[in-house]
Design goal:
Helices cover 20% and strands 44% of the residues. By secondary structure, it is of the alpha+beta class. The relative contact order is 0.17.
Length: 178
C-alpha cells in the first residue's frame, strides 16, 4: 500500500472517530439536560412566620386606629409567639405595645389587636412590628410594617370582606411626596 493512501485512510478513520465522539457527547448532554430539567427548583422559599397587619378603623389624622396583626405559620408549628410594636413612627400607642399570641399550629394563624392614635398632621408614618416565636430549630423572628397615612380619611375607603370573610377597610393607594 502506498504511504499517501495509508495516511488518507487513517485520516478518514480519525475523522469518523471524532464525529462519533461528538454525536455521543451531544446525546450525553441531552440526557443530562433531561435529568437536569426533572430536578427543577422553583425557588418557593417562605419564612416560617408570616405577618399581616390590617386597619380595623379608617385612618384619620388625630384619630385612633385599631390594627389587627395576624401571625401565621405556613410550614412549621410555633410556640410562645409574641408580637410587639417596635417603633410607632410618631403615632401614639394606646394600651399595650406587646401581646402574647400563644401557639400557632402549622398552617394556622392567630390574631391580636393593637391601637394607635395617628398624628394630627404630617407625612406618612411607618409602624414597625416584630413577631417572635419558638420553632422546631429554635427562636424565630419576623418583622412587619404598617404604612399609616394621616389624612387617610380624605381618601375613599371601602369596607370589604377578605378571603377569611372578615370585614376590612380598603384604601386606594396614592403616592406621597418625599
Amino acid at each position: 500500500m502506498h504511504y499517501g493512501t495509508w495516511l488518507g485512510r487513517v485520516g478518514l478513520v480519525a475523522a469518523a472517530l471524532v464525529a462519533a465522539e461528538q454525536v455521543a457527547e451531544r446525546a450525553s448532554a441531552a440526557d443530562a439536560g433531561a435529568a437536569h430539567a426533572a430536578a427543577r427548583c422553583d425557588g418557593a422559599i417562605r419564612h416560617p412566620i408570616e405577618v399581616r397587619v390590617e386597619p380595623l378603623d379608617p385612618v384619620i389624622a388625630g384619630g385612633t386606629v385599631r390594627l389587627r396583626l395576624t401571625a401565621g405559620a405556613p410550614s412549621v408549628a410555633l410556640s410562645r409567639v409574641r408580637a410587639r410594636i417596635e417603633r410607632a413612627g410618631g403615632a401614639t400607642v394606646v394600651g399595650t405595645p406587646r401581646h402574647a399570641v400563644g401557639r400557632v399550629e402549622r398552617g394556622g394563624a392567630q390574631s391580636v389587636e393593637f391601637a394607635v392614635v395617628a398624628p394630627a398632621a404630617g407625612d406618612r408614618r411607618l409602624i414597625e412590628f416584630v413577631v417572635e416565636g419558638e420553632g422546631p430549630t429554635g427562636p424565630l423572628r419576623c418583622g412587619a410594617v404598617f404604612n399609616l397615612l394621616p389624612g387617610g380619611g380624605e381618601q375613599p375607603v371601602r369596607i370589604v370582606r377578605n378571603a377569611a370573610g372578615e370585614r376590612v377597610a380598603e384604601y386606594r393607594a396614592r403616592k406621597v411626596a418625599p
